[in-house]
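Progress against Task 2.4 (sequence-to-structure conversion) is shown through the following example record, which the project officer requested during the mid-term review.
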Amino acid sequence: MKKFLVLVLISSLFFIIACSSGPESTVKKFYKAWVRGDQETVLSLVDPEDRQLAETGFKVVGAGLRGKLENFTTKIESNNGKNAIVVTSGTLNGKEFSGKAYLTNIDGKWYIDVP
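Structure tokens generated for the chain above:
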């Protein structure tokens, strides 16, 4: 019985770790950091090749997207292990929004692609 419980605990831990670093988790971290105005975290979640563009975008429109994020949901539309599309929706400052986030997996870490 002890071995079974240890096996269940270890399996659960691996599941939690795997889920916390997937494309949905990256998108959630990105949105939450953006509305807080946390540029450092936003840029760390963007594809390294797109960071300069993302930094400019954050400076231009960042302040307009800060505020209260509510009812935020994510759902994976597609994920082939290298690229993923995550559908998003929620309410920002009382206005509903929906969209898609495109991500790339680089060396086991998911990054937001800037179109």
